[in-house]
Amino acid sequence: MSAPRSRRFLVVGIVAALLLLGALAAFLALRPQPEPGLPGAQGAASAASGPERAALTVTLVSPAAGEWPLVVAANGSVAAWQEAVIGAETQGLRLVEVRVQVGDRVRRGDLLARLQSETTGAEVAVTRASIVEAEAALAQARANADRARQLEKTGALSAQQINEFTTAEQTARARLVGLKARLDADNVRLAQTRIVAPDDGVISAREATVGAVVSPGQELFRLIRRERLEWRAEVPSAELARIRPGMAVKLVPPGGEAVVGTVRQVAPTVDPATRNGLVYVDLPQPGGAKAGMFARGEFETGHARGLTLPQGAVVLRDGFSYAFRVDGEGRVSQVKLAVGRRVGDRIEVLEGLDAAARVVEQGGAFLADGDVVRIVDAGSAPVAAK
Fold it and tell me: pTM of the predicted model, to two decimals?
């Protein structure tokens, strides 16, 4: 009796356990699940997923205070400091040779062009021959006058005759002086057949054509003296009082590197139409700047303290500048900035951060507001978290 009863109790226990397990499974299956947006669901998801993973491994930087230059921005044209107009000084002569082209560098006295000189040379030769003749006539007249003066006391010659000899001497001397002056004028005309550079510089324009007959004052060449250029900046009248001769200026011509200049002169008048005044800036080393270019530049008028960030810490989005501030838990918040000037790889921060703020130094473009980051020392390179 005991063995069959034991087996019966065992079967009943197994069946009861199976029924209990089935009821528990049915209860869990039919239990209502919390919605994803409810706190319970978020807590369950957080409990299931564990700690939030870092979006990026970053280094931090704080805004640095420093001296920043105060500048006045302006626009203007690059022009020649002085452009010499080289033309003909004689008339009726033909151009027989042109030796320079636009862009050629020349030195003072270099031959640029040559006019026909045969006629003028012949005139010089005739005048020289006339001088020789006049010198001989003067020598004879002087000898006659000397003899007449010696005979004056003897009475052999009348006063009228003596006067004629002395007058002939003076006339011969005056004729010689006149011929020498004519020779000087002929030599000047002969020299004018050689068109030479009045100063060192570079040829900026050429109108001379071989075979053309020139007239006095006709322009043949233009020369930028000493290759000196200047920037003629148009500065608003309200800013003119801050600019002084000797100030440093930096301008950037189109497609070129920055050029450093020095203020030479501030114009004494202001254009009544634009209310702008001209400031003349010398460019000792013009670099890529050329006469006629339009350039933008800045005048350094002083210095002021300000906060700056590295360029990599500032992110440009939708036309605005942002930085990512990091709190004590490593979570970032996007902060809108008002930025100013840029010097090198630093950007001036006008509004949005204080000196104690800690922001992401690099990689802000890969972050969003609220992301969690892992902070490392500045010596470690930022890498994306896996």
Answer: 0.59
